[in-house]
TrEMBL record:
EC number per UniProt: 3.1.3.48
Extent of Polar residues compositional bias: 383-410, 421-437
Family according to the record: Belongs to the protein-tyrosine phosphatase family. Non-receptor class subfamily.
Organism: Denticeps clupeoides
PANTHER family named among the record's database cross-references: TYROSINE-PROTEIN PHOSPHATASE, TYROSINE-PROTEIN PHOSPHATASE NON-RECEPTOR TYPE 21
GO cellular component: cytoplasm; cytoskeleton
Protein name, per record: protein-tyrosine-phosphatase
């Protein structure tokens, strides 16, 4: 009798998966580790993201997504609504997918879950060390001191000076002078001593608060030309879209509230302003680039407007509430990363309960195993609930995908003393957080 899902039983009694029906996805996490998930070839980016979120025991997936390198070696965010395999086959340089922060928040204190803050911290540290967020040497020293305290714990005066020299503390290739590098490392060591006793979570929070003050935080840039053919950078940021000219002209900011819509046509990307009838048009490299820039800018436009509205509502609730009452945690409904000419409502994907908005996936991973007899419609083996199962109490333990450890129950997540397994392991093996020279 043939086995389901394209499985073939060899004499070794080990199963292999037919490449025609399944996809083994290799994903690099923010701590540098790689995980693999076996998905259907029709599985969407959203299903893959949910599998990663459950592996990390992460509920606030709003801010995160998956990205890959295209054939021009450029970073491209996955369209979560489309099959992942088709995107990688058509555009990807390699089959590896990367997990990261796609939506940055104006204030990191709004991140509710500790594992969310930890993953966010890893992303910001990566942004600093890889030079995506430029900083001064004074800022780099302060952040390096906090990062060392967060990743390695309290200072040991007998080994710290030599110990720190083994790791990349500053942006790669940033300090060329050996003497300046040694002096900066000594200053980091001095700061490191002053942080003795500071818990890792607090050091991470201070690091993130330092980064969010830096110009360039939360920005993503795209190369283009203006109507005169001059080279420019289209920069998507927390406040709106900045047009930076390479010829020395001052940058121009278009606030999200002033932008009515964004469109693309062939290789052109256009901004439709709310208070003007005409549009501002830019030319990108090709049609695929203009489509991608439009999709990402529309997603950020929606996200930041929703984020601002909820922040104002939260402030009003706090202002009119009694001093004893505390604001309930919430999750912002994420903007879709798929653009089909207009915004698509996702109201049905979010449950508004007493704790605010929680993500409720409608993908096949959320269906009960009884509904599909142990299978899901796209051909994958049903192995676990999606991240929505982490939001509500469960009466049983379930196993995460590709993991032998039982997943946590929803009631455990709400315990004040709960620390996710992923975070515990990261604390114990935090040496991986820095790159060894």
């Amino acid at each position: 009798m043939p086995l389901p899902f394209g499985f073939k039983l060899k004499r070794t009694r080990r199963y292999t998966v037919s490449s025609k029906s399944c996809l083994v996805t290799r994903i690099q996490l923010l701590n540098g580790e790689f995980v693999e998930f076996t998905l259907s070839v029709e599985s969407t980016g959203q299903e893959c993201l949910e599998a990663v979120a459950q592996r990390l025991e992460l509920r606030e997936i709003t801010y995160f997504s998956l990205w890959y390198l295209n054939k021009q070696n450029q970073q491209r965010w996955v369209d979560l609504e489309k099959p992942l395999k088709k995107q990688l086959d058509k555009y990807g340089l390699e089959p590896t997918v990367f997990f990261g922060v796609v939506f940055y928040v104006p204030c990191v204190s709004q991140l509710q879950q500790e594992i969310t803050r930890y993953q966010y911290y890893l992303q910001l540290k990566k942004d600093i060390l890889e030079g995506r967020i430029p900083c001064s040497i004074e800022q780099a020293i302060r952040m390096a001191g906090l990062a060392v305290q967060a990743d390695f714990g309290d200072f040991n005066r007998y080994e710290s000076q030599e110990f720190l020299q083994k790791f990349v503390l500053f942006p790669i290739g940033w300090i060329q002078d050996e003497r300046v590098l040694e002096e900066a490392t000594q200053e980091v060591c001095r700061l490191y001593q002053t942080y003795r006793g500071l818990p890792a979570a607090e050091a991470e929070m201070l690091y993130m608060q330092e980064v969010e003050k830096i110009e360039g935080y939360g920005q993503e840039s795209y190369h283009a030309k203006d109507s005169q053919g001059t080279d420019i950078l289209i920069v998507s940021c927390l406040d709106g879209i900045i047009v930076k000219h390479k010829n020395g002209k001052p940058p121009v900011l278009f606030n999200w509230n002033d932008i009515n819509n964004m469109t693309h046509n062939k290789s052109f990307f256009a901004l439709e302003l709310a208070n003007k009838e005409d549009t501002i048009q830019f030319q990108t490299e090709d049609m695929e680039t203009s489509k991608y820039v439009c999709r990402m800018c529309l997603a950020r436009h929606k996200f930041y407007r929703i984020n601002k509205s909820i922040a104002v509502l939260d402030f009003v609730c706090i202002f009119f509430s009694s001093p004893q009452s505390k604001p309930q945690p919430y999750m912002i409904a994420p903007a879709q990363l798929h653009y089909n000419g207009h915004y698509t409502s996702q109201d049905s994907l979010y449950i508004n309960n007493q704790n605010g908005y929680y993500y409720h996936s409608q993908t096949s991973l959320d269906r009960s195993p009884h509904e599909f007899n142990g299978r899901i419609r796209n051909g994958s083996v049903y192995s676990a609930h999606s991240t929505s199962s982490l939001n509500n109490p469960q009466h049983y333990l379930q196993h995460s995908p590709m993991s032998s450890n039982p997943s946590i129950t929803g009631s455990d997540v709400m315990r004040p003393d709960y620390m996710p397994t992923q975070l515990q392991n990261s604390r114990r093996s935090s040496v991986q957080s820095f790159v060894v020279l």
